[in-house]
UniProtKB/TrEMBL annotation, chains A, B:
Similarity section: Belongs to the group II decarboxylase family.
Post-translational modification N6-(pyridoxal phosphate)lysine, affected residues: 303
SUPFAM superfamilies cross-referenced by the UniProt entry: PLP-dependent transferases
Name the UniProt record assigns to this protein: Aromatic-L-amino-acid decarboxylase
Any one Gene Ontology cellular component term annotated for this protein: cytoplasm
Top-rank taxon: Eukaryota
Alphabetized UniProt keyword annotations: Lyase, Pyridoxal phosphate
Cofactor: pyridoxal 5'-phosphate
PANTHER family associated with the record: 3,4-DIHYDROXYPHENYLACETALDEHYDE SYNTHASE, GROUP II PYRIDOXAL-5-PHOSPHATE DECARBOXYLASE
GO biological process: amino acid metabolic process; carboxylic acid metabolic process; catecholamine metabolic process
CDD domains: DOPA_deC_like
Organism of this sequence: Exocentrus adspersus
Length: 504, 504
């Protein structure tokens, strides 16, 4: 493909994406393909000779599009939002266009330096303590990683490094193996699976301690666990606190946990993967209070901050522990500017690095801080609107509501809610996933797409209502009596509409 | 930014990339900025309100471009090639445009299924043994990872899992900790730093055994190390063989190493990050012989196969060890199609996944197998041409030449070659990096850019010659005598030209 063809293909692809996004609301959010669908549509081997881009682009439409789950459809309410914005898409494309691999400062100074600057911008936007920032005097700093999973793991390794060093200073006769075999980590049972995985990857058992009734890990529970482990000769090392858990978006209280971690010399890592973006709004910043107790902090601009996946922002108070854990220098990587710019390859798992700072820069400049705040506030308002709809119907109960996430269920046996979720899934008009809260089965409803509007929330609620009607009919209709199912209570105005239509 | 603005911005960016690539030959390959250059050019904080894309694109030109090292300049001969092609760039953009996160089959069936198919296409192109392929009956399969670093680490963890399971079956009284603390891994001292890093990350000491005079790890050296470790009560577990080492592109002989690994029940991982693409050419496929002894194999389409970073292809004979090492299931990730399509999140570190299969598909279709073979052969021919130039000048010696990489030096003391490299670096006309071979300092000259031509090789050679002339003048000129430096031998025709010009 020559440059001229690239101009044509690239622009056709831009139009394809634009058209896709303009029609995304009308597409069924979930695909209807079965596992193995692609098998029949593709040749078994790569073609021997090249094909035209026009043919390939047609096949994207024919083969790929039917197998996409439309994460940016306003009817996508599963997981948490994953970021998607036009500035970020163009940033990703230009990064690919330059195609450098930022494995050292010299390998492309702009890669490292824009990342340093963007991590300062982000950190200031969240009012992170100065000592976390690259622009501070000390050994702290920020870096872009690929995911919160990587971050949690990388910080675990740094914590291990620090603990080994600390204990060997006190007891020089201890071997690294003696110490490493006894290290132990903690988080709450509400933490993301990636936290447990970090323990597996790093060979440090991760105790998932019971959260309180608000989904929070408390200092007293943590302290109990620490005491028990110490009594058994284990060495507490690492704590992962959650600001915005995956199941219910619960917030650990850092002012509660932090002093324990500091006193016990545990590395406190704070994971705010989703909710971190909200700390850019003054009204939510208090949830980050106590972060000064932490050694590391992470949130994902690729979740709520409109920067396409992947872009996970991580800060540490002392980057030297990372560098010491990972540094495997070779002659072909030697540079002559040590100390003047960070060598980020020592801060992460891989050697190579994409230019992820570019899309971050594009988003921050083209949205501005106010644009991001507006986006956060809009999504929270939509979630609150959904919550009000759920509360208006007595058959339902809201279990939790926090940020852009509402967890709710049908009152009564879990089977009712499971049944509801199944019905909704089968219709494929909206996409939600299950969760658990206090051992009860709940439906997680997250406001995800950037283009979700109030009418989309109404649409989703109608979807739940219409299916709930089949399970627990509204007492105002006559369907319930016919089916012999006891109606639970008064239902909402929206439900009344369904009832009256059904009664006709 | 609305959709219409995205159309304009996206197309302007396509043109920007196209223009960049059309002028890349004329740009100095290395930037002339100093560490910290960006600090003065950027505000200290993110803007409060959004700015126009036109302003941002202008700033890319003003701020970013001067800080880029042009990896795709035909004067870039450092490291190894990193892939860059127009189909891949558009693939990356469309992947960002769809913006799904492939954390499960249901999260976007096309993501998983295209990856399954592409890993089959690639595996067949390389004539990998059937048992590695997704389309085989057994538990083997291929997956796209972000980097060879990740792969080497992930396979180390799977090897650990397998060894623990194996030993506990024989000795149920052994604890996991007993075993894990004694595991040991091996590779050659020629392996990439990422191999040593994998050992650090996975808490398994990585012995870097001395390679032979051709840069290869031999079975006898490996066996010696294994015996010594076993005698000390350690448990040999994991071997990383290199097909194309980073320093000199040396190839371990898998038919030599493989039987030892099998006999000793070590997990043999084969890393062909750069050279793997060449196995698509029948004349180089023999270098992969013996891969049937391996448990896992990896090469990076993002190096030589024209698929932009990141895209690292990994195959395993038995994926169950990965799944068992990493599986941390949660209710919000449950799916109902188990067994019909792989859940790739259990094959890797992170939970989320980009749609990297798309750019791979674009490249394979638009180049075809023949296009990739042609690219490989062309770059090898250019390296051989460079080698012939070096050999034509008696002041130089070629230390190794393999695939697209030539390592060479000035005869005599290492300081001469170091001096040469320094001078060449200072001029910033070409970019090469140092290496070591047999304890001697060498210059690594790799043919990297897709658009490198014979004239670019001539240009690079002239660059070396002109600077060598200042260090070891050609005996035919009179400059050497004036400076009192002993000339070493006859020089090439190209050098003669310089000499005669200087003598004028």
């Amino acid at each position: 493909m020559d440059v001229q063809e690239f101009r044509e293909f690239g622009k056709a692809a831009v139009d394809y994406i634009a058209d896709y996004f303009q029609t995304i609301r009308d597409r069924p959010v979930l695909p209807s393909v079965q596992p193995g669908y692609l098998d029949d549509l593709l040749p078994k081997e790569a073609p021997q000779t090249g094909e035209s881009w026009q043919d390939v682009l047609q096949d994207v439409d024919r083969i790929i599009m039917p197998g996409l789950t439309h994460w940016h459809s306003p009817n996508f309410h599963a997981y948490y939002p994953t970021a998607h914005s036009f500035p970020a898409i163009v940033g990703e494309m230009m990064s690919a266009g330059f195609g450098c691999v930022g494995l050292s400062w010299m390998a492309s100074p702009a890669y490292t330096e824009l990342e340093v600057a963007m991590m300062n911008w982000l950190g200031k936007m969240l009012h992170l303590p100065e000592e976390f920032l690259n622009c501070s005097e000390g050994p702290g700093g920020g870096v872009i990683q690929g995911s919160a999973s990587e971050v949690t793991f990388v910080c675990l390794l740094a914590a291990k490094e620090r603990k080994v060093k600390e204990l060997r200073q006190i007891n020089p006769e201890l071997t690294e193996g003696d110490i490493k075999g006894k290290l132990i980590a903690y988080s709450s049972d509400q933490s993301n699976s990636s936290v447990e995985k970090a323990g597996l990857l790093g060979s440090m058992p991760m105790r998932l301690l019971p959260a309180d009734d608000k989904g929070r890990l408390t200092a007293s529970v943590l302290l109990d666990a620490i005491e028990k482990d110490k009594a058994q000769g284990l060495i507490p090392c690492y704590v992962v606190a959650n600001l915005g858990t995956t199941p219910t978006c619960a917030f650990d209280d850092l002012n509660d946990l932090g002093p324990v971690c500091n006193k016990e010399q545990l590395w406190l890592h704070v994971d705010a993967a989703y909710a971190g973006t909200a700390f850019s709004c003054p009204e939510y910043r208090h949830l980050l209070n106590g972060v000064e107790y932490a050694e590391s902090f992470n949130f994902n601009p690729h979740k709520w901050m409109l920067v396409n996946f992947d872009c996970s922002a991580m800060w540490v108070k002392d980057a030297r522990y990372l560098v010491e854990a990972f540094n495997v220098e070779r002659i072909y990587l030697k540079d002559n500017h040590k100390g003047l710019a960070p060598e980020y390859r020592h801060w992460q798992i891989s050697l190579g690095r994409r230019f992820r700072a570019l899309k971050l820069w594009f988003v921050l400049r083209m949205y501005g801080v106010e644009g991001i705040q507006k986006h956060v506030r809009n999504q929270i308002a939509l979630a609150q609107y959904f919550e009000s709809l759920v509360r208006s119907d007595d058959r339902f109960q809201v279990c939790t509501s926090s940020m852009g996430l509402v967890c709710f269920r049908l009152k009564g046996d879990d089977r009712l809610t499971k049944n509801l979720l199944e019905k909704v899934h089968q219709r494929r008009n909206i996409y939600v996933i299950p969760g658990q809260f206090h051992q009860r089965f709940v439906i997680r409803f997250a406001v995800c797409s950037r283009i979700t509007e109030r009418s989309d929330i109404d649409y989703a609620w109608q979807e739940f209502l219409s299916q709930a009607e089949e399970i627990v009919p509204c007492s105002k209709g006559d369907i319930g009596e016919k089916k012999g199912i006891a109606a639970i209570g008064l239902c909402s105005a929206a439900c009344e509409k369904i009832c009256s239509e059904k009664s006709k």
